[in-house]
Amino acid sequence: MAAVYSVRTRTAASTFAFVVALVLVLALFAAPAFVSRGLIQDLFFILTMLTLAQFWNLLAGYGGLVSVGQQAFVGLGAYALYGAVILGGVDPVVSILLAGIAALILAVPTAFFAFRLQGAYFAIGTWVIAEVARLSVAQWRSVGGGTGTSLPRDALKEMILVEWIGDLFDTRASAARDILAYWLALVLAVLTIAGIYWLLRTKRGLALAAVRDNTEAAKSVGVDAGRMKWLVFLTSAFGTGLAGGLIYLQKARISPDAAFSVVDWTAYVIFIVVIGGIGTIEGPILGVIVFFILQNMLADYGSWYLMVLGLIGIVVMLFAPRGLWGLISEKTGLQLFPVRRRLVGGSLKGREG
Amino acid sequence: MSILSLHNVSKAFGSLTVTDDVTFDVPDGQALGIIGPNGAGKSTLFNLITGNLLPDAGTIRFDGRDVTREPAMRRCLSGVGRSFQIPQPFEKLTVFENLVVAATHGRGLSETEVTGICAGVLERTGLLRKANEPAGRLSLLERKRLELSRAMATGPKLLLLDEIAGGLTDGECKSLIETIQGIREEGVTIIWIEHVLHALISVVERLLVLDFGKVIAIGEPSQIMESREVREIYLGIDV
Amino acid sequence: MIWVDTIVQGVLLGGLYALFAAGLSLVFGIMRLVNLAHGDLIVLGAYLILVVVTVLGLHPFIAVLLAAPIMFVLGWLLQKIVLNRTLGEDILPPLLVTFGLSVVIQNALLEGFSADSQRISVGALETASLPVGPVTVGVMPLLTFLSAVAVIIALNQLFYRTAIGRAFRATSDDPVTASLMGVRPDRVFATATAIALVVVTIAALYLGTRANFDPSVGPARLIYAFEAVIIGGLGSLWGTLAGGVIIGVAQTVGAAINPEWQILAGHVAFLLVLLIRPQGLFPRGG
Amino acid sequence: QGARIRIGYVTPQSGPLAAFAEADPFILEGFEATAAGANFEVIVKDSQSNPNRAAEVAQELIVDDEIDLMLVASTPETTNPVTTTCENEGIPCISTVAPWQPWFIGQQGNPGDPASWQPFDYAYHFFWGLEDVIAVFTNMWGQLDTNKSVGGLFPNDGDGNAWGDPNVGFPPVLNELGYTLTDPGRYQNLTDDFTAQINAFKQNNVEIVTGVVIPPDFTTFWTQAKQQGFTPKAASIGKAILFPQAVEALGDTGHNLSSEVWWSPSHPFSSSLNGMTAGELAEGFTQATGRQWTQPIGFVHALFEVAADAMSRVDDAGDPDAVAEAIAATELNTIVGPLAWNGAGLPPFAARNVAKTPLVGGQWRRRDGGGYDLVIVDNQTAPDIPTGGSMEAIEG
Amino acid sequence: MNALLETRRLTANYGDFQALFGVDIRLNRGETVAIIGANGAGKTTLMRSITGVLKNQADQVVHDGVEIGHLPADTIMKRGIAMVPEGRKLFPSLSVEENLVIGGQHKGGSDLGDRIDSIISRFTGAPDPMELAQGHDGRGYWSLDTIYELFPILRERRDNPGTALSGGQQQMVAIGRALMSNPDVILCDEISLGLAPIVIRDIYAALPKIKETGASVIVVEQDIGQAMAVADRVYCMMEGRVTLEGRPSEISRDDIHAAYFGAAA
Ligand SMILES: Nc1ncnc2c1ncn2[C@@H]1O[C@H](COP(=O)(O)OP(=O)(O)OP(=O)(O)O)[C@@H](O)[C@H]1O
Ligand SMILES: Nc1ncnc2c1ncn2[C@@H]1O[C@H](COP(=O)(O)OP(=O)(O)OP(=O)(O)O)[C@@H](O)[C@H]1O
Ligand SMILES: [Mg+2]
Ligand SMILES: [Mg+2]
């Protein structure tokens, strides 16, 4: 007699989106074969910023942890990579993993400290920690101290896969390195989005949403809100560290002021997430594209560019606080990454929620 | 054997003592009703039992363990389920998802294992029609029913209900009583705060009266209702 | 001897930081607004004073009297038109909007005044000093510190002795109930920001006379100002002074050990205080 | 000929370093007006004084604009990321306005390990080095009667670390020349208090202060020093007092501060592009903009001189190796002096990539009626360049 | 006869959640009206709508013949409608005396901000706060002295922080604070909540004195007996609707129970 129920998450739009995404990712993988190197570099920039934005969004949009200190993880990740390559002679590609791990290690004491703080205090606390990290790394003489340093050219030349890619596409080593970095960025971005989407579809993702809606009630139904915070913070730090390592692998030059820049690695990232739409996976994707277009259109106008960027940020926050994707999904109800679980079956047969 | 026992528990907000040296036991499987005027400290008592608030003094034991300092989430896992007097749904989640959170985390089960449980609870509480509706769009009565459903979904040994019968029609009230009776028969211990006395009395075996944070009477419902003191303090209306 | 000097200079430096922080503290204390543009507003104030000094040929100390009302109106409009819309539970809107504002102010100044270093000159006063016991103390740093104390006394008087201060505190406690008392929270907030910008103008005078400034120097000091506010405790103006002094002394003592540690020592002092007292040293009503 | 040669030029047009780029439009106009200039298309990109941005625009120039040659100027913060990018991309690059040590060593993986240093294949730099500035400074100090006790202000940045370096910086040379150096340590830029340094200097009876300081920090230091009763006989400072506006910001206390002079209107050189003398170029700038001349003007101009000269000697501008070879073979008399990458005056590791230009010493002198003039007071390092006076001690 | 204060088909929402569904109540001059109802019935929401804390359509609330539903809370207060909020809501940063003073600090549209807005309104066509607040100058019987006379204990505790008082004393401060503006209408939301019967008696003893000075009163109560005792008329609310209206003498206990709980006893 017991009715049979099941849960459905997919929608027609999401199935379509999934197919499109799959095709898009395959196309992006194949891109180096038929697009210019300039485009590959632009795509690299877009993909790494997208990764950073997704992780910040996970932190702030899903975890409610508004951090202004993500540059700590970018910078530390990047420096870990340089340390491993320069001092340890490790292959740069392998060192990217070390970048993530270094960021993760920094994240543990940071979280211990920052979780004692709330709201604005948390934001400023993370910022100060990032400053401390910057100033400390600036004392690390063997990777150049405050001067910064470059990746040794030998290490770049001997990087794994580069030769193979060079042969494959018949290009110079520098272009082959770009392609390798681009592929790594693509893998990282796809894994990030897939991973976050997966997380949101698990019971932990649901708990995250519950904590965001009502922390007291969430605790009362057995959700470990504290552990959710740790999970989100550490995951973001790890991913941000990986992205940081990759970004500076591609740049091949580092300095503390650049690698720990609050403007480049946190403010712009916040801008991307907010413009696109915080608390959605689609938002940062849209945001990074808008950001990239703005930068390309206006970057040659120097201070005017930055003024326009600042004004757009203000206007969006004031008049469309849920971002561009918020506007779109409000109008159309569109969701490319649905997480809503709909109960079907039993007496609900055929009914849609 | 008592599943819950409070011993000299006190709680104050600043200068206001809201729970004043409260001591009582609840035997396993019993249903206890709590009554008392507004502001007597009933909901606060619940918050102390669930761990949403920590007491200033005294000890709370649940299921044979001292849980006085345990966080709410741990207590939920060991079997304390509750409803909030002012409904606290996860507004952006659907009704069904509200229950899924409770069932997966409250019982430590996986998502696939709880679909049936959640649907079953919704069937019992009559919220099934609304299963896929965001909880933020529910009316007050539906929210109260969601509170009950979500508490049930955590699979509690002890269920704390805070004013869930207010504003129901006769028929609705009857079916609510049946639902709660049903839960009791499954062996769940129940503590129920309610102003709708006839509903309360038709379920509970014992009644506890709270006034100014103090337990002023505890015992058989009929006896309690007879006592002049209670009538005066609680009902307010001279009968 | 050197240690006495180090600490005295640290305290005076703390006065500068407290002055940077006082306006921030007022705004943060009343409406929990994290104003990332505060440092740039100080720089804006410095340019305003500079313009008044150059155009009208006034002494900087007199020019402040002219600049302050302009900044007051600016603050009022800024809060009323822009920032009031960002207030609420969520800290992200104020963060992003004031960051946007910071970028806009910096680049507008860059367009207007170029990246050249500027300085507001107070003539011989710049290098004047007084022997105080075993140490010599610069007159300007001393004036900075005394101004910080004066500003904090004045703000405290305003806060605890006047009708507007009552409205500040009431609105800070509970804007909804305050509106039931005939207080309009958005106006109270606008007034608070306006007053904060008057304090900013005073801070700008000392920023502009102490060293060179250009459109980009604002954010570097912002973090010290925030630290001073947070160390001091939400809403405590004397706490803000104490916070500034703690950071100032930590910096000079750190530097005396090794200049490498100067700025780091300030941050570490901040982290240590927060580790021990997350709510700050003297939180209001806490 | 057909297609014009494409040159990328990265420069800090906005941000804190913008003063370095202030003459760019003037120089570029001048360059385009010359006969050689017509063969070139110059694509200018703003680094926004941000090293990240500098690397990005360098990439853009190489990949999107497909430039044949990169030019870059003004501080290691701009030159190093751009040069590194070019080297990795195999695009020839000429850079200037950064002492060669922070430029060369600063781009090595491990600056602390000379054995690991490697020369560049495509990157060429012309400017002076620390050995020159040390010689100029000590020559100037030699004109005064001092106790030879020097205090150093070296920040933890590209310049400061190079100047203060115990192997290639000031310390070993000063030691050799009989000076004692008080170096309290690397401070961070934008420090608000220099009490620690002042106390250390006072304690060691320092009479000479030197360092490479950003302008706001020097103002802070100098003002505090005066307030705390510390006045050295000489203060020879790099970077901070490069531009007249920065000296004016010091009010009256800028008088007789000394600094290295890499270029001035009285340098006896002229342009290979249009024959202008140094004096004429400076005058032209003042007429065009109404502003006082500054030192980068000559070097930015020279950058284009070298570019035009090298490119005139290659057949295929699109062949990076040929272009690099042509640059290496340069022998040109420019507005900043004779230039050749012949290794003169350089250690072997840098010989291939660096060409040195002459350096002399100057002092800022208060002008009657306001403003300051830079007067050359020591030319022992480059006797061709005439002096305008001799070194004077700072009065307390 | 014109009502002093009236709500017409008043609705209110909290986000997606509708809390009031077309509530009509009226208060005549000199009257005391009680509003009763179970927890969550919408009583406080009704008070918040009248006082402008929640925004409404202009015509949903009418005071003295003027539509005020759209006005901000401070303008409504300056028209002479004061509120003793649920839970007392004293300002913890203010002393007892300051809590009282702030209640009378702004009366009638007279502060600088209002004057500026009034001038601006001439150009923008926005409502003129000075005009809207006219007709109530806030002068009258109540002052610090008369309030200390009414609640003598407050004079002794005048310098204490408001929150250091007992619940009953806090309630006195909240009432005094509302009286300081000498309102025409005073709204009291659950002033007996959490107080001992003897304290409740003290507080209700002040009601006649308040009425004497010309104020009309709305009390929100869950204590039905108390409500019946003081009110000229009673409204009972349930689930955001008025389910019963009448004079205390005319309503039976069963009526109340039905209206109150929905189910018969
Ligand atoms: N977090 C808190 N801070 C301060 N005071 C509180 C807090 N929570 C409750 N109180 C006060 O404690 C007292 C008891 O509240 P509680 O909610 O426990 O009463 P209750 O018996 O559940 O009343 P009701 O029947 O109205 O639900 C009330 O006076 C209330 O104002
Ligand atoms: N800020 C809010 N956001 C969302 N819902 C709210 C809010 N305030 C009240 N509600 C809901 O509106 C409904 C009416 O609440 P209201 O406070 O008006 O009731 P009340 O009759 O005053 O109850 P009580 O006797 O408990 O004071 C309740 O269901 C409540 O949960
Ligand atoms: Mg309750
Ligand atoms: Mg209420």
What would the keywords be for this entry?
heteropentamer, B: 239 residues, alpha/beta, Rossmann fold, 2 domains, 10 strands, D: 396 residues, six-stranded parallel sheet, 13 helices, 15 strands, 34% helix, binds adenosine-5'-triphosphate, binds magnesium ion
Would you write up a description of this structure?
The complex is a heteropentamer of chains A (353), B (239), C (286), D (396) and E (265). With 286 residues, chain C is mainly α. Chain C has a single domain, classed as ABC transporter involved in vitamin B12 uptake, BtuC (Orthogonal Bundle), CATH 1.10.3470. Chain C has helices at 2-31, 38-56, 60-82, 92-113, 139-161, 163-173, 175-180, 185-210, 218-232, 237-257, 262-276, and strands at residues 129-132, 135-138. A two-stranded antiparallel ribbon of chain C has the order 1-2. In chain C, helix 9 packs parallel to helix 11. The longest helix of chain D is centred in the C-terminal third of the chain and has 17 residues, at 296-312. In chain D, the strands form four sheets. Chain D has a six-stranded parallel sheet with strand order 2-1-3-4-5-13, sandwiched between helices. Chain D has a four-stranded parallel sheet with strand order 7-6-8-9. In chain D, strand 8, helix 9 and strand 9 (234-239) form a beta-alpha-beta unit. Chain D is an alpha/beta fold and 396 residues long. Helices cover 34% and strands 19% of the residues of chain D. With 265 residues, chain E is α/β, with parallel strands linked by helices. In chain E, helix 3 runs parallel beside helix 8. Chain E is globular, with a radius of gyration of 18 Å. Chain E starts with a strand and ends with a helix. The model of chain E has no long low-confidence stretch (mean pLDDT 85). Chains in contact: A-B, A-C, A-D, B-E, C-D, C-E. The interface between B and E is medium-sized, with 35 and 35 residues. One magnesium ion (MG) is lined by residues 43-44, 86, 189-190 of chain E. Chain A: The chain crosses the membrane at residues 12-31, 43-65, 72-90, 96-115, 179-200, 230-249, 269-295, 301-320.
